Amino acid sequence: MKYNLSALSLKAGEEAKITLRNIGTMPKAAMGHNLVILKPGTDVEAFALAAAAEPANDYIPAALVNQIVTHTKMLGPKESATLTVTLDAGEYPFLCTFPAHFQVGMKGTITVE
Ligand SMILES: [Cu+2]
């Protein structure tokens, strides 16, 4: 339950592609993964808690979508998804919103300069 990278550096205003690949083998309902990039300054812990309460919404908290820059869908085993982002300078937290994954370390930061 970890990303292979917990720190990413990007250049401000430059388009970047970030690919998430779920290399696990467990079914999505038991061990799905996604990649949710949040706006700088977001309370990630509160976001993760709210997300865990919304399985019907693929663990994306409806009330907090304004805190999201972009996100992948929840990925099952061997699935992958690519996000294309162009970010302004700042520190963007990211996490997996599957319940408890953030708490055990499925998170990181994108630093844009
Ligand atoms: Cu996960």
UniProtKB/TrEMBL annotation:
It comes from the Bacteria. Signal peptide: none annotated. The keyword Electron transport applies. GO terms for molecular function: copper ion binding; electron transfer activity. Keywords: Copper, Electron transport, Metal-binding, Transport. SUPFAM superfamilies: Cupredoxins (SSF49503). InterPro entries: BlueCu_1 (IPR000923), BlueCu_1_BS (IPR028871), Cu-binding_ET (IPR050845), Cupredoxin (IPR008972). The keyword Acetylation does not apply. Coiled coil: none annotated. Residues 1-113 form the Blue (type 1) copper domain. This is Azurin. It comes from Cephaloticoccus capnophilus.
